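Please annotate this fold before class:
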Amino acid sequence: QVQLAESGGGLVQAGDSLRLSCAASGRTSDTHVMGWFRQAPGKEREFVAAISWSGGITKYLDSVKGRFTISRGIAKTTVYLQMNSLKPEDTAVYYCAVKYGAVYGSGEYIYWGQGTQVTVSS
């Protein structure tokens, strides 16, 4: 089992930046791929970004490319999401998740955090 704990959410204005963190505990050797998802009110959860164990492979939702950066800590058990130039449409609960395999693989994310709220005012 892997436990995930997100932090760093908050209320900001459009154009501001936030950095989300997600710390993994438990069977951290299973954290092959760590990703971020978000769910806005009334909408389905969507993929935002993912990163491989080594940090060398990343993947992003098109609408966040160039604004968000995912990275992994040296110990590999923490993942960050640096969010710049935030827009009101980025408002959502952001979730950290883990899956086995590869960033671009078809495997499902099997471990999930509780989420952290990000609210961007216009």
Remarks:
- Residues 45 and 117 are 13 Å apart (CA to CA).
